Amino acid sequence: MVRQLGGFGLRCRRLALAVFGLGALISHPVFALSEVTGFGSNPGNLRMFKYVPASLPAGAPLVVALHGCAQSASSYDAETGWELLANRYQFAVLLPQQQSANNSSSCFNWFELGDISRGQGEALSIKQMVDRMITDHSSNTSKVYVTGLSAGGAMTSVMLAAYPDVFAGGAIIAGIPHRCATSQSAAFSCMNPGSDQTPTSWGDKVRASSTWTGPWPIVSIWHGDADFTVRPMNLTESMEQWTNVHGIDQTADVSDTVGGFPHKVYKTTGGVPKVETYTITGMGHGTPVDPGTGETQCGTAGAYILDVNICSSYYIARWFGLDNLDAVPPTVSLTAPLDGASVSGSVPVSANASDNIGVDRVEFLLDGALLQSDNTSPYSITWNSASSSNGTHTLQARAYDLAGNVATSALATVTVSGGTSGGTPVTVSFSNESANDGYVKANSGGGAPAVGTLESTLGLAIGRGTDSKFNRTMLSFDTSSLPDTATVTAATLTVSYRSASGDPWASPSGNTLVIDIKNACFDACTIETTDWAAAATANAVAQIPKFTGSNQASTLFNASGLGAISKTGRTQLKLRFSADQTATNYIWIGNNATGASLSVTYTP
What we know:
The chain is α+β, with helices and mostly antiparallel strands and 604 residues long. It is built from 12 helices and 33 strands. Helix 1 runs parallel beside helix 6 and helix 7 packs across helix 8 (233-245). The longest helix has 17 residues, at 121-137. One of its GO terms (molecular function) is hydrolase activity. This is Esterase. It comes from Ahniella affigens. Keywords: Hydrolase, Signal.
């Protein structure tokens, strides 16, 4: 059935462009795509294209890639990296293509009931294409996957829900939950600001779309936090939909970073990953790519195919298990301090690590417990040995590669002097005081300061905002419960991630987020404009590295910082970047008692 839009066409065109923001795209030549005709009744009136590597063996996986509005199969194959990965990992790619007769902007009709229901319209056409690929190329029926951008991302949700018996997994890029909209009028609000529903409500929409009872497809969800076309709220709602379908909660079991971007994984009670999310900080509406020749790089930048230094297709292929699973562990060796060394005070601890694909991070262990980690070569931390007891201790490095393989170094035994003695160390945690936290913005140098007003909705800001003001965050802790006789031996601050625009650590290159400390309060204890320039007891006593998860711990406070922690009242901290950003680059961190905590270790 060929559906004609008639008088509906103008409004549909406006919807497609306003909702997905994909106007005229750069034209790309077709390289190795071939069109297939006669793949079934094709009730959605779609076209079928495929990319099949030479000499592809029977039983190979199949990936269905769905383009966005105004795009085509030929602008979504090599550009997104799927063609390169198909050759590398040996799988076929199916690229359905919308026609302007169905939608004036060539969007898949993700909001039309007749196109998103099992056995109907465009959804059935795509399923018929899958059947044709299985017939022609003996594709592995247990390894069929689907992914898409924008309207294609929304249609990915449709295919996973309507045909969970066909697809083993999917990846939704800048898309929306299944059946957020079932009419044109509802589509706008689904895109912006998004529809806030309960996980159960979302899950019920999937369960009602077929008679399938499981197992359900695994799902990877990607979204830019600066996407003003399809708002990032849709990432959360999609996560809630598919975690609910899998019968798991909405608390991440893994919160880390991949390629410098926040990444979360949601697992079953048995520890099996089922849903993951990637929040691409500073990215607008599009598919993330990372052009280059490295193992993790792929794609070509273009309109709504955005070079943000991470290639989504590579990590999606790994999530699907298409990468043939790297089984080679990394190598790691502890380079300092040497085995048998005597140490005191602040001790540099470093390691060398390498891998055939790439090192994800190196963790440093003290007596078998995690001391700190580093995800950037050269891998090193600073250990405050004064917080450890006098005598012998062991240090070790542990490296993780991008496939999750682990290797550990040989142990190094060191002897600590100038450490603690005469008492068992005690560690206490203090929560941030919500009544006294806040952020202050000012011109470079402190002119025209003003208290930030968005704390209740966005959190606490640090860095350069869109108004070209420089934001500093104030945190407050009541540390009066520390014993007067305590010797503070270690302290760290942990803050939670809310959102970001750009990368404030990279503007200018090598920028650092530092912590100033005040014994007592900066002026009045509550937030005020003078806090921006108020003098601290000690400056830059620790740094907060770029986030590697939903929470980030600072480096250990230096000696000046430890000495400034109050035992009789409040200890306040000011978070600021050491250099002014050259353009808009900022981060929002959590506020209130749950947003920040100060850990203090002392000996009685």
